UniProtKB/TrEMBL annotation:
Transport is among the record's keywords: yes
Biological process, per Gene Ontology: D-alanine transmembrane transport; L-alanine transport; L-isoleucine import across plasma membrane; L-valine import across plasma membrane
Entry protein name: ABC transporter related
One GO MF term attached to the UniProt entry: ATP hydrolysis activity
UniProt keyword list: ATP-binding, Nucleotide-binding, Transport
One Pfam family per UniProt: BCA_ABC_TP_C
Organism: Pseudothermotoga lettingae (strain ATCC BAA-301 / DSM 14385 / NBRC 107922 / TMO)
Keyword Nucleotide-binding included in the entry's annotation: yes
All residue ranges annotated as the ABC transporter domain in the record: 2-250
InterPro entries: AAA+_ATPase (IPR003593), ABC_AA/LPS_Transport (IPR051120), ABC_transporter-like_ATP-bd (IPR003439), BCA_ABC_TP_C (IPR032823), P-loop_NTPase (IPR027417)
């Protein structure tokens, strides 16, 4: 589903990602961990076309996407969420998802201005799809609330619903548990596993909360200073001396 082949990204003299290769099979729930500044978000930005790597190639479903425009990569089936939740806070929960669905809208501006039949029909199906998504993520009852009024855990689910509205096959989650209390975190863990199964997704997540990573990821890649220092199952990673030295043993992960 996703392959990074010897990818390198530099910022001036800093090598943020150094010769990184990652291969994720369809349907997997994979984790990307490592200390602050290890290069995790940079990897997400390379996959989603925000950055072009100096070296290496990125493949999505065997098709090369290196350096493609972000909207093109989204339309191919890659969606993401951000470390800091990005929503339209003054809009309702439903409208937040509707806007994300519009990403795929085929109707022209003219048909919208003149409210032509094709446009109304498309609008109706977008509303129906948005409501179904809200039901799937458990926010249906809150559809008419302002996004800003939702508790943090619900805002995160709304952001994920917006990502799902682009009908992705690969979902990238950047620190989904950041800022959550233990109850919200536990709920989020079940939620991520459920949407993976329900929407037939492949998921790659960045997370500092080891309870989440070790609890739901099937395979983990560990980065340190832009380099992959380990990959394996949660058990293998927990017992890897180099990972313990660079990350787990330092307490640097105990954020959030
Ligand atoms: N746009 C940029 N310009 C210059 N340097 C950058 C840029 N983006 C990231 N970096 C640097 O690249 C390195 C990797 O950053 P990145 O954000 O990918 O790390 P991270 O593993 O996601 O960290 P965190 O866990 O803190 O989010 C850091 O040293 C960072 O300062």
């Amino acid at each position: 589903m996703l392959k990074l082949d010897h990818v390198t990204k530099k910022f001036g003299g800093l090598i943020a990602v150094n010769d990184v290769s990652i291969n994720i099979e369809k349907g997997r729930l994979a984790g990307l961990i490592g200390p602050n500044g290890a290069g995790k978000t940079t990897i997400f930005n390379i996959i989603t076309g925000v950055y072009r790597p100096e070296n290496g190639r990125v493949y999505f479903k065997d098709r090369e996407i290196t350096g493609e425009k972000p909207h093109r990569i989204t339309s191919l089936g890659v969606a993401r969420t951000f470390q800091n939740i990005k929503l339209f806070y003054r809009m309702t929960v439903l409208d937040n998802v509707r806007v994300a669905c519009h990403f795929r809208l085929k109707a022209s501006i003219l048909s919208a201005v003149f409210d032509l039949p094709g446009y109304s029909k498309q609008e109706k199906s977008i509303t129906e799809e948005s409501l179904k998504l809200l039901e799937a993520v458990g926010l249906y009852e809150l559809r008419n609330e302002r996004a800003s009024s939702l508790p943090y855990g619900h805002q995160r689910k709304l952001e994920i619903a917006r990502a799902l509205a682009t009908r992705p096959e690969l979902l990238l989650l950047d620190e989904p548990a950041a800022g959550m209390n233990p109850e919200e975190t536990l709920d989020l863990m079940k939620f991520i596993v459920r949407i993976r199964n329900e929407f037939d997704l492949t998921i790659l997540l960045i997370e500092h909360d080891m309870k989440v990573v070790m609890g739901i990821c099937e395979e983990i890649t560990v980065l340190d200073h832009g380099n992959i220092i380990a990959r394996g199952t949660p058990l293998e990673i927990q017992n890897n001396p180099e990972v313990i030295k660079a990350y787990l043993g330092s307490g640097a992960y105990a954020r959030g």
